[in-house]
Amino acid sequence: MNYGSMGNMNYGNMGGQPILILPEGAIRKTGREALKNNIEAAKAIAESVRTTMGPRGMDKMLVDSLGDVTITNDGATILDEMELEHPAAKMMVEVAKTQEKEVGDGTTTAVVLAGELLKKASELVDQNIHPSIITAGYRMAKAKALKILNDIGYDVNINDGNVLEKIAMTAMTGKGSEAAKDSLASLVVQAVKTVATKEDGKLVIDKDDIKIQKVKGASIDDTELIKGIVIDKEVVHSGMPKRVSSAKILLIDSALEIKEIEGDAKIQISTPEQMQAFIDQQSKQLKEMVEKIEKVGANVVFCQKGIDDLAQHYLAKKGIVAVRRVKASDMEKLAKATGATIVTNLDDLSGKDLGTAGIVEEKKLAGEAMVFVRDCANPKSVTLLVRGGTDHVVDEVERAIEDAILGVISALELGKIVAGGGAVEMELSKKLKEYAETVGGREQLAINAFSEAIEVVPKTLAESTGLDPIDAIVELRSKHEKGEKNVGIDVINRKITDMYKLNVIEPLKIKTQAIKSSAEAAEMILRIDDVIAASKSSAPQPPQGGGMPGY
Known about the structure:
The chain is built from 16 helices and 24 strands. It has helices at 31-50, 75-81, 87-103, 107-126, 131-152, 161-172, 181-195, 272-295, 309-317, 328-338, 391-414, 423-436, 443-454, 456-465, 469-481, 508-526, and strands at 5-7, 10-14, 17-20, 26-30, 60-63, 69-72, 154-155, 197-199, 202-204, 210-216, 224-226, 229-231, 243-252, 300-303, 321-323, 342-343, 355-365, 368-374, 382-388, 416-419, 487-490, 495-498, 505-507, 530-533. Strands 12, 13, 14, 15, 16, 17 and 18 form a seven-stranded mixed β-sheet that branches. Helix 8 (272-295) links the parallel strand 13 and strand 14.
């Protein structure tokens, strides 16, 4: 990364002495040069992920410094794995991360849109339009775009299972799991419906309540929804039963062990009898702990901390299944799934603290023992057990399912959906052009640039399917002018058609978030007219020539 070597900032002479502001070796670029450099870096990032967009998007193979390979077409994953130096490039990665965190899908769209907005801005700068006028126009266009999107969206609610499945399918199209997307979409919608709750009349869905457990082996079709939790642990003692029906589950976040003596206190034992009495006392305490557990009727125990060997023996003798060192996050999920209360002190234990499950069993999958807590009565936390032939397949299916889950949640959050395939972008572009004509001044040029930039989505989809992008855009414009607002690019069949009728549906939130984050990133980069990189005495000097490594 090189912003042009400036050496020292010299603000005049005092008696022949230059005034030095920055240290020797600091790097600086100013004005239009700084702006162009940042725009080029951002455009390079957008270009690197552009080909992954849509169902016919290409995959990227990413090899890290250790030689580990990731194959994906997920924009956020690609940018996260890339080692970037340029600060403007890193800002583009933030766009993808925000999109991923908020809605799960549309990361490539957001990054490509930000790159296109900057490309159009660069053309306006070349026409001597000041960046502050461009950012003002972009802000107006963004506000208007969000209003237009809300007006053209269709309503959806949690009872529209069929529509929600179509949203999940759209999110998974083009990912590695596409062959099984019908069955996976159904599982995703079931999972979301199961964990959804109402608070003050408002629907609340927490993505963390849907646990994704990856196990390689079998095929993608063997992926299943478990109405309960899968714990990646095994039963602690071989003498315990491997399967319990009508389970009464106890969750403990303290150890089933004798507490160690704290501080400098010592126990002095001088005879074998005293030693035996000490051991007997410890054994008695552990036995009492187990008896308390048995007394309340628990037959399955999940412990967040350790379980003493002797306590394991007593539990096994009473036929109680125990699992130890369960993660705190899994304990919370178990509590939500089974209705149990996490207990800290066994002295306060009562039957009300227990949760229930139809079956608790230990099973081996791909040679790995796991404990399944199934058939919970009213689980507010569930598990999607993801299967696939290899680690790469399982990882890609997991990414696709996460996108689908977040897509369904996003659709329900705003309660609105839009047609995919570039249809909504073309309609937005048309309406923004109409809006630009009502705005006076140079901002009108920026709003027009914004509307043209949005067309990058259908243009890229057309390219990925082998259609001529210019012909496709011309035909789309023509149909949208006639009022056919849902017409987009059917990438699979390589034609232009009504995407809503084709069941290509996306949550409105994907589009609103992409517009927000891409426009804000573009505005921020456009406002930078001076880049100063402090020198580091121990670091090697940046190579001359500017740009970003690898571009």
